[in-house]
């Protein structure tokens, strides 16, 4: 494998990146994890997301939701919310529907998301552990922002490189961004910056401009 760096956004990306989406379509590992480990490993993350909700949040979408652990916790603790999951794995969506969580099998890069989620109707989107796995992260983020209402928010993670991260770039991860790259992303979607934490990942909350 080789890595390149983008002159405009400073992203480091594996070139070529293997297209593993076909494998994800049949993946059952997330369902197995749900059945074996339950919801406890995700409760802290779910509480973090709730703390980032904009006022009057009613509709939450988890994009690349795995087998729906975050949505299951939200359903349990906040039954008033309307929840929806977007996920490439058909077994994961089948499992979610069996436990009463709505969702759709979706390729975030290629599919028209309007058929599943009407534009301008979502208050909060979770996009966790997926920025580095979609084919075109910027394209996907723009589609996410189309789903959000003005003032709606998205919380996403992205593989991070910079002075606070002493870890080496790993061959298995296809894309990394630095702070310049994050600022470039924010400018592309026209968002308001809400919150940022940096460890081995960026953990970012952005708000859609009115």
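^ structure tokens above, recovered residues below v
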């Amino acid at each position: 494998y080789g890595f390149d760096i983008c002159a405009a956004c400073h992203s480091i990306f594996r070139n070529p990146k293997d297209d593993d989406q076909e494998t994800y379509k049949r993946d059952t590992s997330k369902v197995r994890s749900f059945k074996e480990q339950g919801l406890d490993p995700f409760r802290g993350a779910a509480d973090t997301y709730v703390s980032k909700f904009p006022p009057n949040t009613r509709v939450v979408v988890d994009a690349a939701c795995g087998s729906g652990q975050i949505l299951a916790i939200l359903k349990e603790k906040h039954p008033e919310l309307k929840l929806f999951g977007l996920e490439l794995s058909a077994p994961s969506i089948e499992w979610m529907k069996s436990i009463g969580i709505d969702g759709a099998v979706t390729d975030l890069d290629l599919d028209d998301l309007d058929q599943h989620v009407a534009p301008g109707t979502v208050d909060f989107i979770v996009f966790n552990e997926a920025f580095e796995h979609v084919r075109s992260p910027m394209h996907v983020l723009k589609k996410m922002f189309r789903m959000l209402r003005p003032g709606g928010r998205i919380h996403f993670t992205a593989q991070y490189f910079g002075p606070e991260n002493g870890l080496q770039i790993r061959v298995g991860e296809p894309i990394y961004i630095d702070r310049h790259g994050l600022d470039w992303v924010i400018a592309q979607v026209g968002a308001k910056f809400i919150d940022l934490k940096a460890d081995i990942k960026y953990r970012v909350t952005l708000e859609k401009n009115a």
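The CA atoms of residues 191 and 209 lie 6 Å apart.
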